[in-house]
## 1
Amino acid sequence: MYTTDQYKSKVRTFGALGYDAERIADLLNLHGEERIELIVRLSVSGDELRIAYENGLAVGEYNIDVGLTKLAEQGDIDAIEALGERSKQRKTRDMKKHLFGV
């Protein structure tokens, strides 16, 4: 079995890249019980690995928004539209999470 500390930073990095649990397990070359354990832990709210994953997702989204904001400030219409769409999607996702825990 693996320890949480072994994979926490890697899970955070993979989360920032938007990878799902299956892909993370593949990239970590996990098999059998270790693979199943990682996938389950990434789905359990409050688990250390889940928290690291969610943190990574947030960092990844932030980095994309920063890049789009810089382009939008330079007058890039596509970036402005993408920022607006991302904002709507984030609000919808946040509302679902708040109301339904999804």
## 2
Amino acid sequence: MKNLIVFKLLFVLFLASCNNKTQLSKDAHLGFWSGYDSDNKLVTLQLNSDGTAKLTTDNNTLDSNFQINDISMELRYLIDYTQNPIQLDLIIKEKESGKNI
């Protein structure tokens, strides 16, 4: 009987420890990420600590300083760690006005 009580207690503690979510570091996403698109072409994504990003596909690059119709733009990102799976938003902003495109 005593062994059964000890076993139940250990089992409850084990289940409780499995239920805890591992906290990801808020900078775990920083760095270089790469993969291949549906045409099997390399795509790279760099996430910087200042919230800027650099996305490269083929010979095209969007980063913290590019132009669209002579307007200075920047690529930024937001990460929502409260979602499962974690959500990543890439945002193009006009540098001067700060307006999202």
## 3
Amino acid sequence: MERFRKYIGRALNTENIRNSAGLEAIGIRCAYLSDPMEDFDEAEFRTGFGGRENIVITVATEMGQIKRVMFSEADAGNPDVIRSLAGPALERFLTARGGDLVRFFEYITR
């Protein structure tokens, strides 16, 4: 998680987030983005891992700048129910997709 700390405080580039082709090239899609973003808001992204489209990346913002990033796993039966990704599951995800995540954060903050 340390490698993502440098993105905390960076401004989101909503134009890049709305560019679905740019995100899809990284294997991530935007599931929710306010238009316009509120002073305190969240953007939600989905990506695959373990053969399913089950990972939720929530980026919480304040005044358009990243304040917190959460990695969760969506329930297979009800994708609106998510559980925090932690421990070995988080490590496996970060090991497998860490390079993609760096590209993702660089892209949404460029």
